[in-house]
Amino acid sequence: xxxxxxISIEAAIEAGKEILKIxxxxxxxxxxxxxxPLTEADTASSDIINSYxxxxxxxxxxxxxxxMAFSERKQWRTCWIVDPLDGTKEFIKRNxxxxxxxxxxxDGIPILGVIYVPVSRELYYADVSKGxxxxxxxxxxxxxxxxxxxxxxxxxxxxxxKNLLRVVGSRSHMNNQTLHFxxxxxxxxxEIDIVAKGSSLKFCLVAEGKAxxxxxxxxxxxxxxxxxxxxxxxxxxxVISKETNEELVYNKxxxxxxxxxxxKQ
Length: 265
Hints:
This protein has helices at residues 2-23, 40-53, 70-73, 88-93, 176-185, 201-207, 222-234; strands spanning 29-31, 37-39, 60-62, 78-86, 99-106, 109-117, 122-127, 132-137, 164-170, 191-197, 214-216, 237-241, 260-264. The chain is of the alpha+beta class and 265 residues long. The strands form four sheets. The chain has a six-stranded mixed β-sheet, with helices on both faces. A three-stranded antiparallel β-sheet has the order 11-13-12. Strands 1-2 form a two-stranded antiparallel sheet. Helix 1 (2-23) packs antiparallel against helix 2 (40-53) and helix 6 (201-207) runs parallel beside helix 7. The longest helix has 22 residues, at 2-23. The model has no long low-confidence stretch (mean pLDDT 94).
């Protein structure tokens, strides 16, 4: 586990460094078949990550690769799930709220996750089996300020309170269903605060206690959520499907997620 977590951390950091080289210059934006944006940074990051993960001989599901048919994937007990640049819209807007996401799942459940934020050089990582998540800061050369897995970098959710509920909302996907959910919460809390954030950072905010709940009532793919799910799960948070009322699962026949809510159990 530690070997795989270290490999994924190194892959995420190296990918983040490459993304920044492109981010700091002019770049071209193309549209994929589903009309979502694609930049050269997505592709470059994917290539770097795959070069690291392929050495583990564990199969990969990713946004920017040709994924295997489910007839083959269903035989995989363990696999990587990768989003080489989560928050491409945030990347294009140059607001810094984009991430590199790498997760490993076993029997459909996340067991480790890494999220790297290249602009702020924040590194989130988790070992679910040990029930621990970390947030480490890197210097301007993308080297950790202190040794990884340091107890001072452990993160945890905030204690529950009825006075204030901080709800994470998307920078790009806030919709009427989400607004209705927020309105319903006013029956249970004295005050509601909306915390807007892009990409998988929304998971991180709840995991590190800067928000309390993240409702997602808009489409996401497995690579959008697997790493954040791992980081939240490791600190005791639930990522519950609105469709099944059970934990989100991965390596499904359809890689599209159902709507979900991240909150305390």
